[in-house]
Amino acid sequence: MARKELAVDSVAEAYLALLGDRGVEYLFANAGTDFAPLVEAYAKFARTGVKAPQPLLATHENLAFSMAHGWAVATGKVPAVMVHVSVGTANALCGALNAAREFVPVLFTAGRSPLLESGAPGARDVYIHWAQEMFDQAGMLREAVKWDYELRNGQQLETVVDRALTVAASEPKGPVYLSLPREVLGAPLPGFAYDSPARRAAAAPPAPDAGAVAEAARVLAKAKNPLIVTASAGRDPAAVPALAAFAGRFAIPVVQHRPRYLCLPADHPCHLGYDAGPRLDTADAILVLEWDVPWIPGLKAPRPECQVIHAGVDPLFSRYPIRGFPCDVALTATAAAAIAALGAALDRDIDPGEIADRWQRLAGEREKLLAGWRQTREQAKTMRPIHMAWASACIAGIADPDTIFVNEYTLMPEHCPSTRPGGYFASSPASGLGWGGGAALGAKLAEPDRFVVCVLGDGSHLFGNPVALHHAARLHKLPVLFVVMNNSQWGAVRRAALGMYPQGEAARSNKPPLIDLDDLPAFEAVCEAAGGYGERVEDPADLPTALARAKHEVVVEGRQALVNVICRGV
Ligand SMILES: Cc1ncc(C[n+]2csc(CCOP(=O)(O)OP(=O)(O)O)c2C)c(N)n1
Asked: What distance in Å separates the CA atoms of residue 261 and residue 413, rounded to the nearest whole number?
């Protein structure tokens, strides 16, 4: 047990030094008048060399939060975000919702209007200090965070910081929120001393319950057609080899629907693609591993007699108001621990004859699937406007095994396979658009030596505040290749309207309202305006070389690039 002392002029200095001591490496920040004590503290640390999180400026709060999110998923560590009082919190809220639903730990902090109208250092001195105050600033995001608090004085600092960080880092992980009033940050803190290392540890993850494991293993052992469905097992990279070994040992097909991480390498013989629909009719046992929506009950569901096991850090997704999927066994554990325990139990229960049978069927199904994808690519190859399957295949053509893909939902993973754990990150199930670009910058910050490709829809890209994004990429020297699949529309909105009213007026209209994004700016020129490289591609035959040129700019010249791919609408 060691106690450290640090002479500080303010709580702000103590706060930043404490974050540095606790291993918080970055503070993704969008500043305001509430930051005065932090600005002062950082300026002093530049001279004195006190270790603190490196401040990284982002000119929009959603960008700051998304960068933190990308960094957190690529490193497994907890970043800090700081924004300006109530209004900055409002702008970052979408990022907090994304992080919450994907169990991404973030220390989300904001200033708070000075409490006092006069009479103390830091008290109100600008007119906004009245209007920006709220009765309950954290109220707007309380549903999205695991914990929130306001720092009331410097004496409590160590307890509050440690509590915030340990709650965020305990399973199920997630964002926490701390507001920091200006006078509190600006107050003196004589005799500041703290434990280093910290005496408050994050909680260990829950161990899988032996009874639930035995029950789940019995279900899987009895099944003729078991199926594993997952979207986020790969959140913990250790779960990827565990799942690969488990599926391979017992010949169980794995489907990753809208994966948020790489969960099973694309070349694994049990990898049966991205659509569980065709397997639901025959499945007699399903292991739902870290997945909130294993199927859409209104469209297609497994047979009533199919047994269903849900496993994950919060297998019931207890923060979702409604989620009624059948659940015969709910196993609370990280994906890696759940798989390890199930593997040991199933080894005892399984009939080896079943495994041999399943291998036969699996090999045939996988070959059929791969052949179908090859055919789609062949057909897509010459389509103009460019087909997203062809664009995805061309992106695969410039990737290497270490490439990190960040997908704000238009990359088709069946045409752009990845195999390395931690090589693929996609949108949170909350799907608050505007995440991808910032997340890609965060991933690049975490993995500076790896090639990062960020694939975005034109709509998603616009939500991500492109001018702020390209500025941050340049400012922080984070060369990422952005590929915009530009179909000049919100295709998802079109699909939803036509899906609900297949014979309706919108379906008959050439141009239903609120779908087409006419007169879009030249996205490549926006990237160029920030010192990057840009190309617009309309001819599918030009795409491979355009992407190769862009990759050269990113990897060799060290500058960001954007390829604006003119794609088909839906
Ligand atoms: C913050 C936010 N606002 C609105 C939406 C609703 N929304 C979902 S998908 C989508 C369209 C996305 O367009 P684009 O990225 O171009 O992809 P496309 O659907 O055309 O393939 C919209 C508007 C959302 N998910 N998040």
From this structure: 11
